[in-house]
């Protein structure tokens, strides 16, 4: 089971670290964070941006066992060669615990606020696909091999890199791709993804079916990939406590797809998601200062949804 942090007002590193360490102590497998420079409400002047990968580098040294990653990073934020090096560096810093979640980028106002180009949809998908080709190409090219790794695309070009970044994990850190796109997202995921994420949808089974067809179209076994989904949660031992935690979810879309209720309600919903095909569920948390929420989920939900390891 994995925890995804989505801070409502941004956060200082110490806040993120406290949540990550609580996640680790509570027994969760992984701690992921979003990659945003603005909150969902672009007019929220209390939002405090932090860089996703800088934060994850800190967590790589300040946590011990929990896996770390982005869900998902924006391909529009960083050049692919630089991103490949960043992730490889954090993979080494964490002892092989990092995962790369990457998407096209979608939040136009966020890009404008930070002076970042925001191409039209087709170009963003083109760039995204080229980025993945560059990143995986660099990660899997042996050091010193002639002629090295080269790539010639419409948007990115790499020339004879004989000293590419090395990752601890082999062949490279897991790559998570997801989203609601009906064609190109599943097609790109079929080529590059270790894990396909259905994103926030009421019908993850339909998204998984689209991904399976995309895999079959290129001769890949869909069973090779993990299938994941996102579940916003507001859990409480009483209805009042659950509703109080649910008030942090400002988006009606998120609330409509959330489970707001008792630990047993969360367990039941996770069971439904597994029946729909998900083998991995990210619990989407919004109030990062509510560490008791994480502790409750770890104590009252996790034991009922995680299969004990066989000795």
UniProtKB/TrEMBL annotation:
<keyword id="KW-0288">FMN</keyword>
<dbReference type="InterPro" id="IPR019952">
    <property type="entry name" value="F420_OxRdatse_Rv1855c_pred"/>
</dbReference>
<keyword id="KW-0560">Oxidoreductase</keyword>
<keyword id="KW-0503">Monooxygenase</keyword>
<dbReference type="InterPro" id="IPR050172">
    <property type="entry name" value="SsuD_RutA_monooxygenase"/>
</dbReference>
<keyword id="KW-0285">Flavoprotein</keyword>
<dbReference type="InterPro" id="IPR011251">
    <property type="entry name" value="Luciferase-like_dom"/>
</dbReference>
<feature type="domain" description="Luciferase-like">
    <location>
        <begin position="7"/>
        <end position="245"/>
    </location>
</feature>
<protein>
    <submittedName>
        <fullName>TIGR03560 family F420-dependent LLM class oxidoreductase</fullName>
    </submittedName>
</protein>
<dbReference type="InterPro" id="IPR036661">
    <property type="entry name" value="Luciferase-like_sf"/>
</dbReference>
<dbReference type="Pfam" id="PF00296">
    <property type="entry name" value="Bac_luciferase"/>
</dbReference>
């Amino acid at each position: 089971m994995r925890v995804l942090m989505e801070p409502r007002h941004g956060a200082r590193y110490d806040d993120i670290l406290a949540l990550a360490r609580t996640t680790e102590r509570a027994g969760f497998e992984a701690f992921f964070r979003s990659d945003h420079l603005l909150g969902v409400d672009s007019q929220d002047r209390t939002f405090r941006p932090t860089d996703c990968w800088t934060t994850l580098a800190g967590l790589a040294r300040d946590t011990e066992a929990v896996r770390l990653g982005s869900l998902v990073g924006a391909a529009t934020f960083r050049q692919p060669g630089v991103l490949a090096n960043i992730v490889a560096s954090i993979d080494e810093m964490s002892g092989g615990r990092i995962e790369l979640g990457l998407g096209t980028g979608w939040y136009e106002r966020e890009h404008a606020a930070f002076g970042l180009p925001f191409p039209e949809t087709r170009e963003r998908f083109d760039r995204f696909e080229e980025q993945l080709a560059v990143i995986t190409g660099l990660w899997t090219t042996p050091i010193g091999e002639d002629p090295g790794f080269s790539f010639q695309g419409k948007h990115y070009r790499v020339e004879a890199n004989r000293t590419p970044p090395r990752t601890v994990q082999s062949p490279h850190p897991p790559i998570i791709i997801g989203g609601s796109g009906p064609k190109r997202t599943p097609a790109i995921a079929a080529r590059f993804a270790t894990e396909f994420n259905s994103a926030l949808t009421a019908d993850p089974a339909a998204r998984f079916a689209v991904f399976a067809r995309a895999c079959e179209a290129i001769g890949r076994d869909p069973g090779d990939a993990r299938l994941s989904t996102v579940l916003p949660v507001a859990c409480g031992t009483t209805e009042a406590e659950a509703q109080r935690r649910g008030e942090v979810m400002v988006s009606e879309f998120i609330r409509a797809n959330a489970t707001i209720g008792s630990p047993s309600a969360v367990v039941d919903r996770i069971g439904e998601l597994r029946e729909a095909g998900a083998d991995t569920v990210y619990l989407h948390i919004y109030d990062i200062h509510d560490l008791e929420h994480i502790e409750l989920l770890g104590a009252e939900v996790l034991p009922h949804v995680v299969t004990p390891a066989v000795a």
